[in-house]
């Protein structure tokens, strides 16, 4: 019951469900609109990510690194690095859900304004997750939808990831070098045998994602592993993400059967530049996940969609679901002024959106797709 309550309390799922229902008046929905490989890949990755979370992998490195921080700048630099690289493998959402509570524990003994560190955690998680197909869900969709090879994907993601890291590193330099004394976070013991098994199954899942083996075999491997380690992990898997994707698949499929809408959208995204700019702008209003699905139905400019939707995760608080999650975490743990957070968030995010968006504009023509 708790699983169902959590899933159906997800507001984004309600929006996605409403979109699927409303667009069904345009055209009757069809099951063939759902990309089942993406759904299977998502479910497999959601399970394996929760296993890593259960094994406290990120908490271990958080405790290890933050013990070495002597100044506020060093602390936020370490948190930013954890967020940036952790999101590549554990997704931006899980990284935020892990690091913001840890930062809250750290700040109990420090006089630090939490607004900018929480914004930085969200920012670094968003920008780091771009590098891998499993860092965020819309990258995984692009990979499966366009049947990309591993080299194709990383040729697209590596240049912008390097630029993103420089941007995150630059933001940390604005924090003061005030001396701090941290209360040590509790030691975390890693279960090496379970981590080794999980790493092996992760490889199996990657093989499924890149079509080296059937994707259903990867899902079976993930299910067997979670049953072996602890079946209760299945209760915390984010099933709402899977359902959200299914609803958006149906909504976009319905829209795709309306000639007038197809002609209008196709006219906007005929060129790489049009696709790129439309992806960024649309993400600001409906988030980058549905934008990716929508753009992919009407354009084959893969690199432009990839850069537009990933860079488009910056900007408004709804541009990425991770942004909303960080805002909720801030309000829950720090009970701070929501208006002050939103104002600071907007300044930082729109500044970087302009900078990285301009760089991305020049990158879209460098890599043929």
TrEMBL record:
It holds the Pfam family CitMHS. The chain crosses the membrane at residues 12-28, 34-55, 75-103, 115-132, 153-176, 196-229, 236-255, 304-326, 347-367. The keyword Ribosomal protein does not apply. It is found in: Membrane. Residues 6-298 form the Citrate transporter-like domain. The keyword Transport applies. This is Sodium:cation symporter. It comes from Companilactobacillus ginsenosidimutans.
């Amino acid at each position: 019951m708790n699983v169902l309550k959590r899933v159906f309390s997800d507001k984004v799922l309600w929006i996605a469900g409403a979109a699927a229902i409303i667009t069904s008046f345009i055209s009757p929905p069809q099951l063939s609109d759902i990309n089942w490989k993406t759904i299977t890949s998502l479910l497999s990755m959601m399970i394996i990510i929760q296993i890593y979370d259960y094994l406290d992998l990120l908490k271990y490195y958080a405790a290890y690194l933050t013990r070495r921080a002597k100044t506020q700048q060093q602390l936020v630099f370490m948190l930013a690095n954890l967020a940036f690289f952790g999101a590549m493998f554990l997704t931006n959402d899980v990284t935020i859900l892990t690091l913001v509570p840890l930062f809250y524990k750290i700040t109990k003994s420090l006089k630090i304004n939490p607004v900018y560190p929480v914004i930085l955690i969200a920012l670094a998680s968003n920008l780091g997750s771009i590098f891998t197909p499993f860092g965020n869900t819309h990258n995984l969709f692009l990979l499966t939808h366009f049947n990309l090879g591993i080299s194709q994907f990383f040729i697209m993601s590596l240049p912008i990831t390097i630029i993103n890291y420089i941007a995150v590193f630059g933001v940390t330099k604005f924090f003061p070098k005030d001396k701090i004394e941290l209360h040590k976070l509790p030691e975390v013991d890693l279960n090496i045998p379970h981590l080794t098994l999980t790493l092996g199954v992760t490889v199996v899942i990657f093989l499924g994602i890149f079509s080296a083996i059937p994707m259903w075999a990867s899902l079976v491997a993930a299910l067997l592993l979670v049953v072996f380690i602890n079946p209760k992990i299945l209760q915390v898997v984010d099933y709402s993400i899977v359902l959200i994707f299914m609803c958006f698949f149906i909504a976009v499929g319905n829209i795709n059967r309306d000639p007038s809408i197809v002609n209008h959208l196709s006219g906007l995204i005929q060129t790489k530049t049009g696709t790129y700019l439309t992806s960024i702008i649309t993400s600001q209003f409906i988030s980058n996940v549905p934008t990716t699905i929508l753009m992919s139905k009407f354009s084959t400019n893969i690199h432009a969609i990839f850069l537009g939707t990933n860079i488009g995760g910056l900007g408004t608080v709804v541009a990425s679901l991770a942004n909303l999650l960080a805002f909720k975490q801030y309000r829950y743990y720090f009970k701070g002024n929501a208006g002050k957070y939103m104002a600071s968030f907007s300044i930082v995010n729109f500044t970087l959106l302009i900078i990285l968006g301009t760089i991305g504009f020049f990158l879209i023509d460098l890599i043929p797709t």
